[in-house]
Amino acid sequence: MNPAATPTGPSATALLGHRQRILVTGGAGFIGGAVVRRLLQESDAIVFNLDKMGYASDLTSIDGVLADLPKGGAGRHQFQQVDLSNAAAVNRAVREADPDLVMHLAAESHVDRSISGPGVFLESNVTGTFNLLQAVRVHYESLRGSRRDHFRLHHISTDEVFGSLGTEGRFSETTPYDPRSPYSASKAASDHLVQAWHHTYGLPVVLTNCSNNYGPWQFPEKLIPVVTLKAAAREPIPLYGDGLNVRDWLYVEDHVDALLLAACRGESGRSYCVGGHGEATNKQVVSQICKQLDQLQADNAPHAELITPVTDRPGHDRRYAIDPSRITSELGWQPRHSMEEGLAATVSWYVDHQHWCQQVRERARYSGERLGLTPQ
Prior knowledge:
By secondary structure, the chain is an alpha/beta fold. The protein has helices at residues 12-16, 30-42, 60-68, 87-97, 111-116, 119-142, 145-150, 182-201, 223-232, 252-265, 282-296, 325-331, 339-352, 354-364, and strands spanning 21-25, 46-51, 77-81, 101-104, 152-158, 205-210, 212-214, 237-240, 246-251, 270-274, 279-281, 307-310. Helix 8 (182-201) links the parallel strand 5 (152-158) and strand 6.
């Protein structure tokens, strides 16, 4: 289920133009999967999907799209299980894909997991990005003519690289980097690598830094799916600290709009901040989910009585907020969904897809327990 919204902006086909071979890293993840689905649905491009198939990877949503395409989308989705920390495998995959555009979304992304196990974040987000940059640099130097002129590597990052805000102000492209967690530090490092390969080697790149994404098909370890599933099951809903930490929420399909615009029409070497105009405290988000469930599961209302304060996350950033003026003024991007309608659709989707949530959690050996406790 997607919330009703008036489609705006150009289609994937119009944006891609003559780019017909698109390499997506992390295309079995939450945001990467949304990008792959959009490319398959709105264009004729061949999508080369590299994913290591970690605990949060899943191809179910892509398989569903392929089943609806003529002839099952034969040949349109070329999947390879590749860990970007394996340089030889990355080199081979890039050669075989021969891409016109690379969209780099592969990353370990859960702050809580980075607190208890930071090593894998360095391997995936730093070493993996370095290996991809090296392979793509060789590929770019082999291109000629219009393919070379239109080639881009688009690196997708997070607003968490900028640190934490007080009660005023918003992050922008000129905000100094100030990462506070192992996750955000690893993403900051990857951002710097991408910019260095642009300035040193002339690799044409675009960067985007987004706020918190939400929507269907997100692995159920993040706030919105965790709260929805626990409340639906009448289990205690954990709320960190006083619940007043603020995030700027961005519906995943709005993010995909921005990513395709930036990848295809963004200026080489430029970065764009993407936020959903959806600032809310964690307490407000949890309360809204409970109200939505009160309507969907009236017999179990009120769900808010399940909210249970727990000890705050170590180093928990107080507030994130993004000023998306640059991508709006230069590329014409605007979010199509309000937080209210996006959240309502997301909660309904998780209630209707509890079997999928159970399957992916069992495969990942994750039962919904709290993550991010520092080792004793």
